[in-house]
Amino acid sequence: MHRFFIAPEWLEGDRVTIGGSLVHQIRNVLRLGPGDRIVVLDNSGWEREVEIARVERQRVTGRVVDKRLATGEPRTKITLYQGVLRLRRFEFALQKGTELGIVEFVPLITDRCIISSVEDVDKKLERWQRIVVEAAEQSRRGRLPRLQPAMLLPQACERAKRMGGLSLMPWEGERSTSLRAVLGDWAPKELKRVRKQMGAQSSSTPPASSRPFSINLFIGPEGGFTPEEVELARRYGIIPVTLGPRILRAETAGLVAAAAILYELGDLE
User: Fold this and answer.
1) 65 CB-near residues (< 8 Å, 6+ apart)
2) Which residues are CB-neighbours of 146 under 8 A, at least 6 positions away?
3) DSSP annotation of 209
4) Residue 114 — very low, low, confident or very high, per pLDDT cuts 50/70/90?
5) 3-state secondary structure of 138
6) Which of 156, 176, 144 is nearest to 220 (CA)?
7) For the domain bounded by 3-69, which CATH number is listed?
8) Superfamily of domain 76-264
9) C-alpha distances in angstroms, 19 versus 16, 26, 103?
10) Coil, strand or helix at 11
11) pTM
């Protein structure tokens, strides 16, 4: 079934009224009609199966026949601070990162970015949001990843520190500290913290659904981070890590790191 993120106000009890550009997609592109079923999501984590009742020129109406929790959201909450890239490369990172399960994107302005103006980057947010929505629908996400305004590196480091979690910076200049080693040291400590919050015995294991991990992932632009930027990040508690002996492209590195993190923490099972 086709999936669509809709405005929450389009839902009234078991009735759904869809407007805007989705009407054209349902009516003219997909050629759906009365009796066909779709899935609608209001970004709450729930999905509703809807049977279409009427398809008109400016609206589509239907009835909710089933409501269930969406199963496409990861337990591990990865925020990707992605250095701004050439247009299509950055859009590729947004699209594939959404499919993979990243929950938040922050466009990052660094010394080697081809675009150095926050205002110039923010002009592209509307287009980027559409890419995120389409990728989320295709990949059966239950919530839309958040797309934040662009930030300079010092602002982003401060934000990551304030938000908490583990902050990592894959960097080609790092030779000894691996991503897997850091995760292997950090995850057990996080489990102990969660157990303590739950008031559980130290020998018990919280259910998987109660173990959210928050990770901030910093990826540089074409050319990577400068040594000065890496040193700045260290001062904020961000850990430089190596992804191995091969040099990855800027639009690939974040996806590889995110996939490795999700696998290591059991989110691809």
Assistant:
1) 37, 49, 50, 51
2) 103, 104, 105
3) G
4) confident
5) helix
6) 156
7) 2.40.240.20
8) SPOUT methyltransferase, trefoil knot domain (3.40.1280.10)
9) 10, 10, 26
10) strand
11) 0.86
